[in-house]
Structure formats: C-alpha cells, structure tokens
Write a structure and sequence with these properties.
This protein has 155 residues and is α/β, with parallel strands linked by helices. It has one domain (2-150): Glycogen Phosphorylase B (Rossmann fold, 3-Layer(aba) Sandwich), CATH 3.40.50. The chain is built from six helices and seven strands. It has helices spanning 7-19, 36-39, 60-81, 94-103, 122-127, 139-144, and strands at residues 2-3, 25-30, 44-49, 85-88, 107-111, 133-136, 149-150. The strands form two sheets. The protein has a four-stranded parallel sheet with strand order 4-5-6-7. Strand 2, helix 2 and strand 3 form a beta-alpha-beta unit. It is globular, with a radius of gyration of 15 Å. The relative contact order is 0.15.
Length: 155
C-alpha cells in the first residue's frame, strides 16, 4: 500500500479496512510524514520512501533525483519483501514505485482519488494504460476515459 497524505491516505485506509487483516501489508510512506504511521489500524511493515517533491519550492532537478532514488529504493524493497500486488489511491509517490513494480513483475492497481470527478490527476494521467487495473470512483469519469474500471467510492 502506497500512502500519501490527506485524502489519499484516508481512501487507502478505507480499502485496507475493507480487505481486512488476513493479508500481510507493506506500507510505503513518505519520510517526512509523521502522522500517517500513527493512523495505521491493521499492522504491517512500514517502509520509508522519499517523495518526488518534499517542498513546494523544490527544483525540478531535485525532484528528478528524488524520483530516481525512490525508484531504486522501491526495487530494493520489492526484492526483499516480494509483494504480490502494489496498490495506490492516487498519491504522487506512486509513479516510481509502480514503475519498479512493473519491472519486477508485481501486479499494480491504481485507484484514482475520489476527488477526481471530471478528469484524471497528474499521477493518473502518467499511469493510465500502465497498470494491471486502473479504477475510478465516479461512473461519469469511467464513461469518458477508455481503459478504466468504475469501482464505486471508497469513502
């Protein structure tokens, strides 16, 4: 499970609550996010990653360097823990982690944020057609975007 901040995390936790404790969870969380680990109800291993943008004033060069570092770190995590599936509810951390997952043969499921009613997020646009399953939470969006699956709302 790839956890961002705010609404992305709330939607991911709703999904984890629905799936229940019978799975072994890995939670990938940005290193500067002290709150998200405290909200985890169903235990799992917490793995830190570096978000592509730590601060709004970060340069594009630093974002590229952080993205590449997260990509390499994700490959290491995938080799160590061998998950069967990677799931994200829209956070920007997803792109390098999903790329690593695809290279390593790990299935990927992207669930677009429920706040995206009329168009895909930047992360969604980057991942469309590059995941094993791409789910949107609004039927109107599913009607407009080929290749997505309408899954209903998580919250």
């Amino acid at each position: 499970m790839i956890l961002g901040r705010g609404g992305h995390t709330a939607q991911t936790f709703a999904l984890v609550d629905y799936l229940g404790p019978e799975f072994d969870y890995l939670y990938l969380i940005g290193i500067l996010d002290p709150l998200t680990p405290k909200k985890i109800k169903i235990p799992g291993r917490i793995l830190p990653v570096i978000p592509p943008r730590l601060l709004p004033q970060d340069s594009r060069v630093m974002s590229v360097i952080r993205t590449l570092f997260t990509l390499v770190l994700s490959i290491v995590y995938l080799l160590l823990f061998r998950p069967k599936i990677a799931i994200s509810c829209g956070t920007g951390l997803t792109v390098p982690i999903f790329f690593a997952a695809r290279v390593m043969g790990v299935k990927t499921v992207f669930i677009e944020s429920m706040s995206r009613v009329e168009s895909l997020s930047k992360t969604g646009r980057l991942l469309l057609g590059k995941t094993d399953l791409f789910v949107v939470q609004w039927s109107e969006l599913a009607d407009r975007i080929p290749g997505v699956t309408y899954g209903g709302q998580l919250l």
